């Protein structure tokens, strides 16, 4: 996600205004992702699909391989890209 979107997610989830990408802003955005990852896994588990999600990571740029999929999620304050990858 773009920096402005990350700051908005972190601010809304953390309950405070972030104006720059700091460790606290990244932690807040990371917790937002953790909550949604847990719900995603629980819902898939109910359908019989067990997943092992790795902790979220923050990278400035990301290269996509043939086993990586990007799902754009539109919000009122910008786009969040959900990246799913199969690991060997």
Which overall shape is indicated by the principal axes computed on the Cα atoms? globular
- How would you write the strand order of the largest sheet? 1-2
Sheet with the most strands, sense and barrel status: 2 strands, antiparallel
Low-confidence stretches: none
Mean pLDDT: 84
What's the Cα radius of gyration?
14 Å
Report the order of strands and helices: HHEE
Number of helical runs? Answer: 2
Helix content: 40-55%
State the secondary-structure class.
alpha+beta
Count of DSSP strands: 2
Give the terminus-to-terminus CA distance.
25 Å
- Beta-strand percent range: 15-25%
Task: Give a structural overview.
This protein is 41% helix and 18% strand. By secondary structure, the chain is an alpha+beta fold. α1 crosses α2. It is globular. The mean pLDDT is 84.
Give a short overview.
With 88 residues, the protein is of the alpha+beta class.
Topology:
Blueprint: H1 3-14, H2 23-46, E1 68-75, E2 78-85
Antiparallel strand pairs: 1-2
Helix pairs in contact: 1-2
What labels describe this entry?
88 residues, alpha+beta, two-stranded antiparallel ribbon, 2 helices, globular
